Amino acid sequence: MADFCEDKIDQDFSSPGYAKGNGLAENTVKQVKYLLIKLDENWEEFQYALQEWRNTPSHTGYSPSQIFVNRVMRTKLPVLPELCHVNTENAALGANAKKEALQAKADKLGGKELKELVPGQRVLVQQLKGIGKKPRWDNSGTIVNKNGDHQSYYVDLDTGERLLRNRIYLRELSENHDLLKDSFIHECVSNLPRRSERIAARMNQ
User: Fold this and answer.
1) Which pLDDT value is given to residue 94?
2) Are the C-beta atoms of 15 and 150 separated by less than 8 Å?
3) Where are the domains of the chain?
4) What pLDDT score was predicted for residue 151?
5) Which CATH fold topology does 122-195 show?
6) How far apart, in whole angstroms, are the C-alpha atoms of residue 55 and residue 68?
7) What are 28-47's pLDDT values in tens digits?
8) pLDDT score recorded for residue 143
9) Distance between CA 113 and CA 96 in Å, rounded?
10) Burial class, 35, CB count within 10 angstroms (exposed 0-12 / middle 13-18 / buried 19+)
11) Where are the beta strands (DSSP E) in the chain?
């Protein structure tokens, strides 16, 4: 089983703090929860209902079992024997139909398309804590690479950490931002009174 999982399954990480990036899994969990609530949390009835849910076609015209195991699964309800045969063509068609339906839904919603970032580019990183109150852009770092086909990137922070963040939490930095930041810090430090002056001022109070 371990060898099968290593060869056949690609581990794909979603960025934290952005539930929409893992919307398919979240939506499936929601449907299964509603099914369990509908049956008053009766586990035995839930097992049979889950079998029927796997055979129920979605808006794409294909059921989860047809897409995942390439056939209709046997349940308590009678089914034609030929439907239980493995059909890889239906699985591919179902997966493509699902992908096209989701893309059409995303295009319909619209929204601003953010510019793609490139490795080596300097960015500001938004803090995930306190997003609902007031977003803070007090971290800066460098783009390492993009996370596959997702809209998320690996970022090396100036503090030494490496994070995975969605594009909406990254903001491009101007070329002279770091220079302005260093000059601002230098100006603040240079304007501080010397230690001897501070001690003398305190003694004169």
Assistant:
1) 73
2) yes
3) 2-109, 122-195
4) 82
5) SH3 type barrels. (2.30.30)
6) 11
7) 888 889 989 988 888 888 88
8) 92
9) 24
10) middle
11) 122-125, 139-146, 152-157, 162-166, 170-172
